[in-house]
């Protein structure tokens, strides 16, 4: 069975020092670039200035408020999109006729980014939370569907035929053959979908919000508070890393046969 493409895993203990070294080098390069004068003063803060801005936002309470709002939106949209995308992926991967009907529609929708649908979602649902969650769910659904559909469709038909010949009912063929075989693809889909959820979160919050990491980036950008903007970007990046590490750990726990 062909291996389903998956995002690279987190650094193993043996690769921790190279990862830390690369991070230190990136920070040093960032500091040197900020001090070199290549960028106009005030438009590129140093890592230290960014950290100070982050600490200030935490002390003011805006960081906690924005982080809670963004996490709530991203988590709810991710769960909705991941459930729908996984279910649809299993269905189209297992049923060729359904795949023939659904795949062209999904392929049509996939190039349409969530940010392009912000005006339409706002017109339909207003600037409340419903529009934001649905935009995130839309983006996650399409991302998760692709990985799950590919993983399920690659499960050898001989395995399923053997289970059917042995008299296994549909629910046992799913739980004991299809799901274990497609589990690595499913977990890769969830990891990719989590990163897509954060991308869609930015688009959703730019469409109208009163709190959130992307909302704060927009507000800080209007006042050219570049250090605060970099602090927000740093939090978004660290949030993505944390979520990916959690999902990768879940993959090693629940689908260890598909991880390296």
Word description of this protein:
By secondary structure, the protein is mostly helical. The chain has a single domain (44-258), classed as MetI-like fold. Helices cover 77% and strands 0% of the residues. The chain contains 10 helices and no strands. It has helices at residues 16-36, 47-60, 62-94, 96-109, 118-125, 129-153, 157-165, 170-206, 213-222, 226-254. The model has no long low-confidence stretch (mean pLDDT 84).
Beta strand count = 0
Q: How much helix is in the residues?
A: over 70%
Task: Specify the CATH class.
Answer: Mainly Alpha
Rg for CA atoms: 22 Å
Q: So, CATH architecture?
A: Orthogonal Bundle
Based on Cα principal axes, name the global outline: globular
Describe the structure using short key phrases.
single chain, 260 residues, MetI-like fold, 10 helices
